[in-house]
Amino acid sequence: MLGNFTYCNPTKLYFGKDALDGLNEELPKYGKNVLLVYGGGSIKSNGVYDKVIKILKDNGKNVFEDAGVMPNPTSEKLNEGLARAKAAKADLILAVGGGSVCDYAKAVSVSVNCNDDPWDKYFIRFEEPACKIIPVGCVLTMVGTGSEMNGGSVITNREQKLKIGHVFGENVFPKFSVLNPEFTFTVPKEQMVSGIYDIMSHILEQYFSGMDDNTSDYIMEGLLRSLIHSANIAVENPTDYEARSNIMWTATWALNTLVAKGKTTDWMVHMLGQAVAAHTDATHGMTLAAVSIPYYRRILPYGLKKFARYAVNVWGVNPEGKTQIKVAEEGLLAMEEWMKKIGLTMNLTALGATEQMLDGIVKSTLIMDGGYKVLDENDVRAVLKASF
Ligand code: NZQ
Ligand code: ZN
After folding, report:
1. Is the minimum distance from the CB of 71 to ligand 1 under 6 angstroms?
2. 176 FRET partner, CA 20 to 30 A, in 23, 27, 71, 94?
3. What's the CA-to-centroid distance between 58 and ligand 2, angstroms?
4. 69, 139, 145, 202: which to mutate for ligand 1, most atoms within 8 A of CB?
């Protein structure tokens, strides 16, 4: 049965080849000082930086920069960013980049006017912001996380070996996001594929929870089929606009809170992947790919009916004359073959993890209770071991 919920997503989207023009509509709504946040320089080499700067200048903004946001942004960098935003007296934080840059911008936005240590407050104690939040806007250049239309922010504390996400409320969602699929054409193939699997994992971790037969399940099956179809095209031809635009749109819907409404969710693959990243700094989507199949094989007997449904409705497995378990297993096998085909990293060793790290990774794994089986420490260890 669909549970009770309220639904509101306040992010305004500008989508398509002219999406950046949306900045001309948005910028006049905010004060003069804009903190432009970006990563390691891809936006300079692909021309997005110049386009954004021109629009900011045309709109009479004072531009302050905070560059060098790394993939898996750190608490150390967050402290640097909030000092910069404070010094700039930022009226708007404009994030231009992938999920790391968007997540980081949100973390800065809730930390500038807060007197506590932001890591402790938001990522250890999971408190909500009680201070004035600086509005955030995003220009997305890498697809996968859904950060462009949600309140998620994932920060890594390298010293504590923890990578933790805080899902903030609507007041922290980006006020607007610019989604031009062409801006993603320069993303390296490995990164594109990693993003594709991030999308798939977001959908699956909301799908594989509960046995209700509700609208969300049908939406998610549709999103998965579109994703698989478009990914197959994009892997062959990364500049296929139709495929890249469909992937971009699917990513947004996969994690903009809609499909989770009224149902339970799992998120254990993300908890395992984040623990791996806390020890290896590996690419987000690849950490998820490396642990997924061992995790799903372990929980399959507890969610058999849903895994069989997944096999038939998403992977086209023919159920005739087969037991439910056979159908479910064939679904996972089809998924595994497809993951290999598109070039995902399927084991932890290839991501730089060693058996010596195992105890540490187990310790860094937060256990969630919404999946078909609530894992204990032995399960976590077994899944990770099977992922090496
Ligand atoms: O730093 P630059 O030079 O820009 O290069 C980036 C980076 O190296 C590059 N890139 C981005 N756009 C590009 C490009 N290169 C060429 N052309 C372009 N157009 O891609 C690399 C990865 O970027 P990153 O932002 O790290 O990737 P992604 O979007 O996958 O973000 C990953 C982060 O988001 C978090 C992850 O944990 C990770 O920290 N997540 C956030 C979520 C949320 N807000 O809801 C949920 C997700 O599950 C995820 O956990
Ligand atoms: Zn993710």
Report:
1. yes
2. 71
3. 35
4. 145
Distance of CA 67 to the CA centre of its chain: 21
Q: What is the rounded CA–CA span in Å between residue 217 and residue 219?
A: 5
Distance between CA atoms of residues 12 and 145, nearest Å: 17
Summarised one tens digit per residue, pLDDT across range 113-158 is 999 999 999 999 999 999 999 999 999 999 999 999 999 999 999 9
- The 10s digit of each residue's pLDDT in 341-384 is 999 999 999 999 999 999 999 999 999 999 999 999 999 999 99
In a mutational test of the pocket of ligand 1, which residue from 37, 154, 202 has the highest number of ligand atoms less than 8 Å from its CB?
A: 154
Ligand positioned closest to the Cα atom of 292: 2
Segments of the chain scoring below 70 in pLDDT: none
- Is the pTM for the entire model greater than 0.85? yes
